[in-house]
Amino acid sequence: MTDSQPSPADTPPDHPTTTPRRRWGRVLWHLLWLLLGLLLTAVAVLYYWAGTNAGSQRMLSWIANQQQLIHYRYVGGNLRDGLQLDHITVKTKHIDVMVQHAVLKVGWRSVLQREVHFRQAELTGLAVIKKTPPSGKPFDFKTIKLPFTLRFDDAVVHDLQLRVSKNPIIFSEVVLHDALWAGDHLSLKQSSLKHSAVAVDHITGDIRFSGLYPIHATGQLVVPALSRLGLSEIDLKATGTLDTLNGTLKVAWPDAAVANVVVHPVRDHVPYAGTLTWQGFAWPFAKALRLQSTQGQADVQGTVQGLSATIHTDLSSRYTPKGQFFAQASTDFKGLEIQQLTGHVLKGSVKVNGRVDWAGGVRWRLLGQSDQLQLRPLAPQAIAGYVPQALTGQLTSIGALGATRSVVGAVIRQDNGESLVAGVAQLGHLGQAGVPLWVDARWKNLRRTVAGVGAIDSQRGRAVVQVHNGTTGVDVHTTLKATSSLVPAGTYQAKLGVAGSALQIPLLRYEGVAGALAGSAQVTLAQAKQPLRWQASVQTTGLDAHRLVASVPFKQITGRITASGQSTAAQQTIRINPVALKALLVRDEKTAPRPVELIGKGNVVLLMNQGKTHGLKSFGVQFDGALNTPDVPKGSLIVKAAGTPQLIRVAQLTHRGAAGAIDAKGEVRLDHGAAW
Q1: Rounded Cα distance, 143 and 208, in Å
Q2: Interval 219-275: pLDDT, tens
Q3: Is the pLDDT of residue 549 over 70?
Q4: Distance between CA atoms of 342 and 310, rounded to whole angstroms?
Q5: Is the distance from CB of 406 to CB of 386 less than 8 angstroms?
Q6: Is the pLDDT of residue 515 over 60?
Q7: What count of other Cβ atoms lies within 10 Å of the Cβ of residue 277?
Q8: What is the DSSP letter of 149?
Q9: Which residues make beta-bridge pairs with 539?
Q10: 62, 163, 240, 373 - which has most CB atoms within 10 Å?
């Protein structure tokens, strides 16, 4: 061995030795691949479960077999895109929850936070059914905790039925936003529910199902029946517990009204009590009347079976001054019982009681008593004279309104002996077009003072009015006692028909102390600048014109007059067609009346007083005919005259007959009989 040969220790090995760092890197690399494989496998399995219909169906079947609380049937879909389930039932000891059909989209919290989380849900036919019969015991506020957290981001429930009492409560739609039930705490935001009679929108609040179930919620209440009156929404705030719930309602109508109510939702018949106050309030119904209240208050208490209310308020309208009113009433939701309604208005007072029913049509019977009600200022000027100066007596109103027949009646019996019975009837609902309407009014001892006529005293009378297709028919008859007025005692009857501006009077009859008169007429009512025009025919028998107007010197007028004319408020023009009249000319009390027979035609112009003074102001007459009277030869007669009720100026009086001719002019004074 020489020194130049290397030693065995210095000879390098055939394979270099591996370092620990490189060995751990290789292990880590293999682990990463293993984890990636497991992750891909998990993703594939998860995709199979959540992304395919078959996988989702298998997983739901597995979940259903692991518990007995919830049962359902798979219809279609998957967890990723949305599931369709039906025949869903949740059975507990006391309550069952059933859903006919559901479309569900599961949220991410169902995977990461182990919640029952639905991004979107649409449930149809949700029923909450109480299985135990009523025990009669107070509601047991047991703590209710879900074994899981239930969350709905957005959900809609169609046809929700709460069958926890004899009569189910049905909501046509419930919308949930951000609804969360965790443990005993349920909260939601901007949700809503709709009932046939009421709806609540923008519900935000929470409730705890422990203790007495404290609750706090806000929302907007919508009552469809009030929406038609312009009341669109009511701000609602509820606090307290489910045993005693305190609510505040604020109404804008558009004026403000505030209600505070206390409700006991879980007590028998749900008793409640509340107070509604208002100030400067314009009532939204009957807007044409402009009903307004300066301030008022209503105290209400009741249950689901009915309520009673006491109301204090002032009230004014477009036609009536402000009055003070007090009312006590109750309702069973089928009708309204008015125990007392008292009003101090129109310088008098009125008290009313009775009942109004609306089940199966509207019916009412109201009884009242009035004391010195001043109604005349409210009446149109044309009929003010026929309205009582003060109404004091018994009042009755009855009625029934239906789809096929409507009847309304009123009775007024005044303390002075005057009575009025009136009724309105119509086939169909009241006000229905194209259906006949009848009005029937009867009276006794009707006493009035009419401008231009004087005092009238009607012992009895009746008026019947029929309205149909734009035409109106009227039949009136009455009996008048003797008074100091221009209207003589006797029986009067008139029939007339109105169609547009045409007035037909087929019958106008009088029989009484001043003789008898019968006639007919046709009238075209005034329109715009066109005056009233008329035609008439009158038959008289022993008519005493002297009793009608003392200054007219004729009585026992018998014969027929046919005339026509036109009329305005200031002037009446009359054209007399051929006339044949017999009468007695009254000169004075000491001289016997002279028989007179008049035949011919003529014209009459009457000027009427205006303003506060009524009646005839002056007149003008032209007549061409014949006048026959004892001691005067028969012949033709021409008269031209003008004057007033006290003085007649004769411009021409010409008589030509077998004995010769007479031409005269002059004056006739009628202040005290006839003198010339």
Answers
A1: 9
A2: 998 877 666 666 667 899 999 998 999 999 887 665 678 899 999 988 888 899 999
A3: no
A4: 12
A5: no
A6: yes
A7: 16
A8: -
A9: 518, 560
A10: 373
